[in-house]
Amino acid sequence: MNDSFTHRVLPYDGMDQLLDGALPFLHDGVDAGDRVLAVCGTARETLLRDALGPAASAVEFTDATAWYAHPSRTLADCLSDADDTAWQGRRLRVLGDPVWASRSPLEVAEWQRVEAVLNVAFRGTGASLLCPYAATLPAGVVAAARKTHPETVRGARALANPGFVDPWVFCEQCDREPLPAPPPGTDTFKIDRPDLFWLRAYVSEFARQTPLPEDGVQRLLVAVTEIVTNALRHGEPPIVLRMWTDAPDGRPGFVCEVSDGGRWPAGSGYGLIPPRPRAADSGGRFGLWAVRLLCSVVQIRTGDHGSVVRLRLDLPFSAEVNGA
């Protein structure tokens, strides 16, 4: 098995350019005996099947909407597939056509962050990922793709991408913009003692007055417990919890924020990389990574004026919320 990980962007303007880059990638994988996945919509699947001919039978087609449902879960699942395939002595090869339409700016930022950190997470897996980006996408999405992919594909050639940015530098750039201030009427609770039982009861009571479904309430309680525990152990007073609902860009959500007066140390990683199986076997806590799996979006800011962890869980589109 080839143990050299590759992550390439395929910019294209029209179906001919898409096929010029995608077909050699897929055919090479089939010929090498790789596990080959094509993640795309129905129209792209039909196009690729027709163009691949008999080789299409050796390609696993997966619906892009389901595949790209949640950034951290997609990253974890794909990394697990890469590790399992490598264990079998084969290479995972994925043509992944990202879903950008209908994404809110918050969601776009999270998926762009995943594109960056997978360059770290997948090292040593031998996997090969090719991500098509249409010229019709928003300019900012295409520009970010050149920062998060080490190589660009032109036809059958892969060229070093001069716009590539170190993954951790890219994440720092994502976090430079301050978070919007909580809206008026935000529920605020100062945490001055480590009583997690009453804290969970308080959060639960507030959350159940909103349209957050019961499974979301349970995920919220686990996530908040982890973040508050971290603030109590490693942060500095004052530790403050805030909760509200809003609907930026029309996407309603429940927001829970924990702030403290401390500053996170450099190299914390912010829970962006999935723990590998050996880490789980050792009994280590998954911490922030688990929080990212539980929430729709996790935003973290830290500096001389303290640290903030903002958790967001999506609400049903029909929900009426503050700021809607």
From TrEMBL:
Is Kinase there in the keyword field?
A: yes
**Domain spans labelled Histidine kinase/HSP90-like ATPase:** 199-312
Say which domain of life the source belongs to: Bacteria
> What species does this protein belong to?
Actinomadura soli
Q: Name one GO molecular function term.
A: protein serine/threonine kinase activity
Q: What is this protein called?
A: Sensor histidine kinase
- Pfam families for the chain: HATPase_c_2, MEDS
* Keywords, sorted A to Z: Kinase, Serine/threonine-protein kinase, Transferase
Report the InterPro entries cross-referenced here: Anti-sigma-factor_SerPK, HATPase_C_sf, HATPase_dom, MEDS_domain, RsbA-like_anti_sig
* NCBIfam families per UniProt: RsbA_anti_sig (NF041045)
The MEDS domain covers: 6-150
